[in-house]
Amino acid sequence: DIQMAQSPSTLSASVGDRVTITCRASQSISSWLAWYQQKPGRAPKLLIYKASSLESGVPSRFSGSGSGTEFTLTISSLQPDDFATYYCQQYHIYSTFGQGTKLEIK
Amino acid sequence: EVQLVESGGGLVQPGRSLRLSCTTSGFTLGDYGMSWSRQAPGKGLEWVGSFTIRGTTEYAASVKGRFTISTDDSKSIAYLQMNSLKTEDTAVYYCYRWESGSSYGNHWGQGTLVTVSS
Questions:
Q1: Which residues of A touch B96 (CB under 8 A)?
Q2: Which of A18, A75, B77, B106 could anchor a disulfide with A46, C-beta 3.0 to 4.6 Å?
Q3: Between chains, do A97 and B35 touch, taking CB under 8 Å as contact?
Q4: What is the C-alpha to C-alpha distance for residues B6 and B21, in angstroms, rounded to an integer?
Q5: Sheet with A19-25, side-by-side order of all strands
Q6: What is the pLDDT along chain B (118 residues), one digit of tens a residue?
């Protein structure tokens, strides 16, 4: 099975900050990686697919990069609505989610 | 408009069975793969399994041999049959539709809570 190690588990930041979340795969997954945002009591919302493709309607302050085993999600300038939990997901072989990163207000 | 609505959750005793339904609308179910994921209380997302476009199934090791995913294209419903339930299966279960032939999801249901307890 492919394991996904996401870091950090918690991130404290302020409105306007630039933040980066990292996801590492236990083996190469090419670019078969998605990023989601989840708020309490809600289903996950797709942000990025194929490592760097921005889903339609998602603000351009979100961006994804990487290939192989190391990937990043960057939010260029945090907005109040961005405080949530973020998950990566590999879909190269079956599927696996990362453990999640809770983005908190500093 | 694409919609997915899960149902069938509830309280069930360990060792018993439960079948969840994911009723879809706004697209032709047979043209897409479907997946189920779950989220235990206060925990992260866990992929449960998928029904692929080719009609094959894939499962996480934690549920393989106990859970079965199927679809009824005529009713536009995807199912998750859960047998031999364990307390650690307690979670909100979500269904989601594959996108562009790949098993990530842009359309998710609202989730249904399954509680396994005596």
A1: 43
A2: B106
A3: no
A4: 5
A5: A4-7, A19-25, A70-75, A62-67
A6: 999 999 999 999 999 999 999 999 999 999 999 999 999 999 999 999 999 999 999 999 999 999 999 999 999 999 999 999 999 999 999 999 999 889 999 999 999 999 999 9
